[in-house]
Amino acid sequence: MNCPNCGTPLPDGAAFCYKCGASVGRPGGAQSGPPGGLGGAPPPGQNPQGYGGPQAAQQSSAQVIAPAGATALKCPSCGAPISPKFGEMVITCEYCGTGITLGNQGWKDIQKHTMLPMRVTKDQVTSMIHDMMDKGVFKHHVQEESTLEEMNATYVPYWIIPISARTSIVATDEMQQMAQTATSAALMGVILGGMGGGFGGGRGGGGRRRSFDMSSLLGPAGEMLSRRMSPGLVLGVLGRRTMFYGGGMGMGMGGGGARKTYQLDQNYNFPVVAMKDLSEYQPKDYTFALSQRVLFDVSKIDKSIKVLNGDIGEDVAKAQARTMVDQLQSQKAHEQHHMIQQIHTDMDVSDGELLHVPVWFVRYDHKGKKYVFVIDGNSGAPINSMEL
Description:
The chain has helices at residues 53-61, 122-133, 174-194, 196-204, 214-218, 220-228, 314-336, and strands at 73-74, 81-82, 90-92, 99-102, 107-109, 113-115, 147-172, 210-212, 234-238, 241-244, 259-273, 294-295, 306-307, 340-349, 353-366, 369-376, 382-387. It is an alpha+beta fold. 27% of the residues are buried. Helices cover 23% and strands 29% of the residues.
């Protein structure tokens, strides 16, 4: 069947035209337009954020289009047949681009399904990788001496999970700790220098003990220093009088230091690759250019570029995102503070969206070593790179 408005070929049973948005008559005279919410393909020119309205999105989000064990179902937008393969949990309709996902209650349409446009050409990717492979003082002509084994572009599904992370950190104030240690060392040098003769006389006279009133010698600083000395040097503190052994010359400089509480707050739109086979290329600390995303429209993707489905659902993606954000917050905390005693992160995790990203996969062989590059086809930035 064809669209009565623009003539675009449509699958049998289609409810509306995925190209122009026109309603398609159904047997019996029933008419149906595109469903509300972000899941369906909007008419050309419509704003992705405004399409369908909040009420329509809420109604559509509660609709289960097929049970979990279904082996055949219809696209909720255009009515095209969809046959889930074993293990698939995220499927994109090859006709209209509507995304559906498998959850605890069954198959549902994805309310937020977006994409990033392809902006990086094959030649640009080759030039970028040339610079990456030849980076370094002793690396020259590495790419020219390597064999290109694979270079292809694919639209890969990512779950974008919004997370607000709040990390509380208890750490020692390093500057104060260093100042205390330096002060103690300086005072000890003054004391030992002034008492050199006394210690010598003590050793010459059979190792007699000699006592010094440090409070009268140095005031409050002397009393503080007496408390910081190691047991090898201090016999005891009696009132304000500290007893020294002639042979004990050690001193404890560690100290507890001053503990302070710091806060590390960060908002993330964390990407989780929706395919188990690509988990080794999972971004660690990478942000896509979400300001450039548009509603997913399969008609705007070159036919030579394959659009992949996924086998990781949103619930699993949320759990993975929590774990990786917790690790990332800990890493950032340790980069800022080197004497951390306690660390704890609280997170608020919101519903995600499915984002299809154009990704270049490139593999080179250089003298038996494999180099793999994963390049963002929208921005040209490296998502991941590794040596196998």
